[in-house]
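Researcher: I'd like a structural prediction for the single chain below. Treat it as a standalone chain; there are no partners to consider.
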Amino acid sequence: MIFGRHKSHLPTPDEALPGRPAPTYAVEDRHTVLGNALLGPYPEHLETADFGLGCFWGAERKFWQTEGVWTTLVGYQGGHTEHPTYEEVCSGLTGHTEAVRVVFDPAKVSYEALLKLFWESHDPTQGFRQGNDVGTQYRSAVYTHSPSQQSTAEASRDAYQKVLADSGYGEITTEILPAAPRTFYPAESYHQQYLDKNPSGYCGIGGTGVSCPVGVAPAE
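Model: Treating it as a single chain, here is the predicted structure.
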C-alpha cells in the first residue's frame, strides 16, 4: 500500500522522502555495449542530453543503438529526494522520473535527431504513465543542458504536437526543463544496460506510430 498510493501525485519538497548525502551503491565503470565510461567527466567535444520516456531499460537501448552516441546511462531525475534508490523512486515519494542520460558526438548525431528518436519511441500524451507502466516515475521529460537545447526541444514539441493532434492524439504532457537544478542520480548497476545483460528482459517502450517532423521549425 505504501508503494502504490502515491503513483498519480507528484510530491512537494515537504512530502518527498528525505534521501541521503551520498549514494548507497557504486555504479560500474564501463558501458557493457559501447565500452566507454559511464560517468563523467567526458571528452570535451561531446554533449549531454537527458530524456525520460517510460521504463528506462528499453529507453536506454534505443539510444545506445544510435550512431554517434558515445555512452548512455540510466538514472533518476526531476525529483526532490537526494540519492534515491530504485525502490524509493517506485514508491512515488521522490518525485523523480526514470531518465536516460545520452552522451553524444554532435558531429555524428544532432540533438534534433535524438529528439526525433525520443518523441517516436513513446507516447508523450499519457501523463504519469507509459502503456501498462503507471506512476510518476514513467512521465515524459526532457531536461536540457543549454538554452539552445531548451529552444530546440520546445520547437520540436510544438511541431510534433501538430502531427499528433492531426492523428487524434491529445496534448503532449512532456516536461521540458533545464537540467542544471535537477540532478541526475545514476541508477544501481543492475539497471545499467539492463537489456544487454538480460536480452529477454522486459521492455515497455512503444511509440504512437506517428512520425516526428525533422528539424525544429515552429509549428504553424
